[in-house]
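#onboarding

Welcome to the new folks! Below is a worked example of what a typical request in this channel looks like: someone posts a single protein sequence, and someone else replies with the predicted structure as tokens. Don't worry about understanding the tokens yet, we'll cover that in week two.

Example request:
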Amino acid sequence: MSEIAAVAVSERPRGTTAVTWFGLVFSLFSMIVLRQVFRAITPEPGTALTLAREACMFAAAGALVWLVRRGEGLPLRSIGIGTSPVWKSVIWGVVTAVACMLPSAAIVSFTHYGHGAASQAFAKLPVWVISIVVLRAGVVEELFYRAYPIERLQALGLGRIASWSIPLAIFGVAHWTGGAANILIALVLGAILTAFYQWRRDLVANMLGHFLVDFVANVLPALFS
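Example response:
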């Protein structure tokens, strides 16, 4: 067995453990549950409630990382962290962002997405709060819908297509509150991010790319409006 293959095997969970199955369910559905809990309080949260929601989602990401290290006993490389030098992650993060921005801009232009009530309510939040939401989206969504489920579904025996498509489908449908256009954008951008992760296996680059796309789309307009 080659050294690279040996490292890849050592970064996989030992068997179909209950911890890994729990991690999969947690990664794919905890954000949806948290969002709906806060939407039940109010569909248009203000600053305090938005910050509370984002804090819960960051905490959920921390819990998943703890599960990887303590529950599964695996290194962070098993979810694409530390697999590439930082400078390469930065370069590929920018490349990923550019690859996502072009189709995203086309879809937004065609569907006129961003003029609904939810988008307008989000735009009313302070810029620093929007920035936190954008940062959380880049970090947590890439961990929950790309790195962890793709790696673990493949480790549990699913083929590449299934391990890509299941998280992508859930990621897309999870954007239903923004309407059909938001689902379409999520599916297209999610597919690009999935392809980059499968190719590079670099979660940091994916997080940066996702963050930059949302930053350009949400924070920059708020700064200059």
